Amino acid sequence: MSLTLPPAGLGVLPRSPLELVVCQVRHDHRPVDAAVALALRDVLGEPEGMFTRIEQVQIYTQTLVAAPVSMAPGSQEVAHGWHFKSSDGAWTAAVLPDQFSLETTRYTNWDDFRRWFEKLAAGVESVAPPTMEQRLGLRYLDRLRDLGVSAPAGWGRWIHSAMLGPPLHEVLGEAVKQLRQEVELDLGGEERCTLRHGVVSDPSAAPGQEALYLLDFDLFRQQASKFTSAGVVAGAQNFHEKADALFRQIITPELLHYLQGNDNV
Q1: What is the reported pTM?
Q2: Number of separate domains in the chain
């Protein structure tokens, strides 16, 4: 059964809690040598010049051999890939033999992120094209803080009660110090979302602000299909819209009002 999500209509949130956004494509294995890295630098570097640093990375793969009573070490393979980084380190485009990704810790809006992901996907397609898409994923990591919450139950004002569970229990709630849950959502077809969420303590926070709430959305499709840059960009756009809709279902109207920049909450 396909999940029907009302459109979120979030727009740009002046008090956005986003800490990390990652879009990753896994595909069939092919080499990415220095010539590929230089060609991709030209694609990514013009005309804006965002990714000014190139770093080679190594990926180690260990093969295990089944023995009668244990798993014995087998061979180890080393593959090489590349990270393209912005000067401030807030943006990274990774191009590895079996995947490529774009991530940022300084997300401003989806249009900007999509523009760079589209440039990366088109560049990969032009200089080192994969044959098969195996997994497309879009991840949003939110950290809600500075909302005057000192204990898990205090998030009842900001997070939908159906998500909180134990902290709202009339007897056990006061004893809950941390809460971590994982929810698997069927978004229809081959699309899924793994939602990891809960309350964690931050001892370094100001008094009365110690309880933080994490929302970690991983939307993905895992299937074998022909790779095209247009296909993965369209898939990422779809996941972005669904991630916004999921976020809207989890937070309260009061929290949305606050994130939109309103102070009278």
Answers
A1: 0.88
A2: 1
